[in-house]
Design goal:
The chain has 259 residues and is an alpha+beta fold. 15% of the residues lie in helices and 35% in strands. The chain is globular.
Length: 259
């Protein structure tokens, strides 16, 4: 595909020092630059789930420091790039390290412009197809969550945020014949103080309760249903999926460099 060794853009855009003021437990992580992407955007470029990517992850080798920085930034996931040539990455939520996650892999694959990513869970295949970036992963790599089906999209839209603790992916068919699905994702994350955590700046205060777009949940749903899906999640994000041979699943979406 004519891959660029430098990826998209030579310099990261946003210094950590410009991030929202952290809570008292989030102030010791090393300062470095990071990019902010929106992944699984709609056709008009709107919506999508924000992702932080630290391209020079080797400057922060300790997992404790990475975890602290991920908590300070407050995105649903932050990626540390350990080797941009190989696509080796390390993924953190504000509270834990993940062996694999969907929207971080899609976003980082687009940013680095590499043919594959190396995660602790395994090697993730990558392909670019017009405006969409696709990754290929295995359902068993995804963290567990409850896939809860509802009768109509209106029911999904009307759901209140559930109490923290259980990771729920609520979904319904919009058009079953066409594979169109309406979904919402409630991470239910809890930190040691009992606070719910999710995407967006300020997650150290536990004030965000719904993820706008989640590739791993879409991967699990695709494996369960055994068919290609066109998912509208959150306010208006779009996730495409397709089953592949031998249990693999492709996840695709649009990515935008926000800053």
């Amino acid at each position: 595909m004519g891959k660029s060794k430098a990826g998209r853009g030579a310099v990261s855009r946003a210094p950590v020092a410009d991030a929202a003021a952290p809570s008292p437990r989030c102030f010791n992580a090393p300062v470095t630059d990071y990019d902010v992407l929106r992944v699984f955007c709609a056709a008009n470029g709107g919506y999508g789930n924000e992702l932080g990517v630290v391209r020079n992850g080797s400057l922060i080798p300790a997992q404790d420091d990475r975890q602290e920085l991920a908590a300070k930034l407050g995105f649903s996931e932050t990626v540390f790039v350990d080797d941009p040539e190989r696509g080796a990455i390390d993924i953190y939520t504000p509270t834990l390290r993940l062996p694999f996650a969907g929207h971080p892999c899609v976003g980082t694959a687009w940013l680095l412009d590499v043919p594959e990513l190396v995660t602790p869970a395994g090697t993730v295949g990558v392909r670019l197809d017009g405006e969409f970036t696709w990754i290929e992963a295995r359902p068993e790599w995804a963290p567990p969550r409850t896939l809860r089906q509802y009768a109509t999209a209106a029911e999904v839209d009307a759901l209140p945020v559930p109490p923290p603790g259980e990771w729920i992916y609520a979904w319904s068919w919009e058009d079953e014949a066409a594979g169109r699905i309406r979904a919402r994702a409630f991470p239910g994350r809890i930190d040691e103080r009992g606070d719910s955590r999710s995407s967006g700046a300020g997650a150290c205060t536990g004030d965000i309760e719904e993820d706008e777009a989640t590739g791993a949940a879409a991967l699990l749903l695709t494996a369960r249903l055994g068919r290609a899906l066109n998912i509208t999640q959150g306010v208006g994000s779009q996730i495409l999926t397709a089953p592949q041979p031998e249990g693999w699943v492709e996840i695709g979406g649009r990515v935008i460099l926000e800053r």
